[in-house]
Fold this sequence. Notes:
Layout: H1 7-14, H2 17-24, H3 33-54, H4 63-95
Helix pairs in contact: 2-3, 2-4, 3-4
Amino acid sequence: xxxxxxxxxxxxxxxxxxxxxxxxxxxxxxxxxxxxxxxxxxxxxxxxxxxxxxxxxxxxxxxxxxxxxxxxxxxxxxxxxxxxxxxxxxxxxxxxxx
Length: 98
């Protein structure tokens, strides 16, 4: 199908979401929480575009799919980060008897 990305490429692209989550964690002190989503999407977009460019799969027909993959990956990373921070906060409250 023209304009489609291989399943293997999608798996590798989305697989970077935990790495983006780890990259965001150290800078959380310096940026507002509202910007974390945008930073995650930006990192993911750069990752997917560079990855596809180095694999020679970045073509005119697949550029929109590549951008969407970057956005989905960034949202996955931001969601993972948010869920992790909520879980840690809830655990701390439970542990302190609040």
